[in-house]
Amino acid sequence: MSALPSLYVSHGSPMTALQPGATGARLAELARALPRPKAIVIASAHWLARAPLVGGAAQPETIHDFHGFPPELYQLRYPAPGAPALAARVTELLDQAGLAPRLDPQRGLDHGVWVPLHLLYPAADIPVVPLSIQPELGPAHQYAVGRALAPLREEGVLVIGSGSITHNLHDFRAGYSSEREAPYVRPFIGWIEQKLSAGDVDAMLDYRRQAPFAQRAHPTDEHLLPLYVALGAAGDGAHAQRIDAGIDLGFLAMDIYRFDGPRPD
Fold it and tell me: What residue stretches are annotated with the Extradiol ring-cleavage dioxygenase class III enzyme subunit B domain (predicted)?
């Protein structure tokens, strides 16, 4: 089996699970285009910790980590099995990289995990290992986490980062919509696409200073940091493919990225 790509997905609002729109269509297409993975390791913007935590539950619960949504959303479950042996392997790889991971034997799947996986693999029959991010440590740390996990791609494991390419929830009250987009969204996502297409990792790691409207697109880092896990897992010289899934509510860009290893000469 050839190495799998790594992915970054914008999961958007929890309502994406009930109203998948363009995001659901693009994720379903992507799942059909990929070899079926043996397992999935997914870093979620909604699991924050000071050091990498690895979910090792044999049957992780579905976590409804949100409030004020329709009752049917709370009835959804994603009953994918866990993978304790893979969780131990992830912990070992991160430990070898000096990243001081810890195993969490009870962690379930938050909506940053189950919303996109519900659209990618609705049968919920692929084992899942969730992974925390470390917002206090920044992009370079998350890139190192991804680099440590790169060998998993050769083992049939799909490494995913789940966040949002733009994420400023203050703009819920700003009156943006499909007819009136926030002015920072397209310049920011265009810069990200340009730097990823050029393989400019240094610029990406310095996005806070270099990207247009970075502070507006991400008042805090946690929803962009999973991108660096996916980028790091792809290895040196990776080819980045942007998949446009639209802009929700006028300010939540739903970009998906597929990272493949270097193209053969």
Answer: 27-236
Confidence (pLDDT) at 178: 81
Split at pLDDT 50, 70, 90, the class of 1 is low
Position of tokens 């519900």?
A: 118
Phi/psi of residue 11, each to 5°?
-90, -15
At residue 265, the pLDDT reads: 44
End-to-end CA distance of the chain: 20
Which pLDDT value is given to residue 133?
A: 98
DSSP state of 172: G
Tokens, residue 156: 């049939």
Q: Give the phi and the psi of residue 57 in degrees, each rounded to 5.
A: -65, 140
Amino acid letter at 226? P
| pLDDT averaged over every residue in the chain | 95
Question: pLDDT band for position 175 (50/70/90)?
Answer: confident
Identify how many contiguous H helices and E strands the chain contains and give both numbers: 10, 10
- Record the tokens describing residue 170, joined without a space: 């203050």
Beta strands in the chain (DSSP E): 6-10, 39-48, 53-55, 102-104, 128-133, 157-163, 239-243, 247-248, 252-253, 256-260
Homologous superfamily assigned to 6-260 = LigB-like (3.40.830.10)
DSSP lists the bridge partners of residue 240 as 259
* Span 212-249, pLDDT tens digits: 999 999 999 999 999 999 999 999 889 999 999 999 99
Q: d(Cα 223, Cα 11) in Å, to the nearest integer?
A: 10
Question: DSSP readout, 51-98?
Answer: S-EEE--SSPPBP----S--HHHHH--------HHHHHHHHHHHHHTT
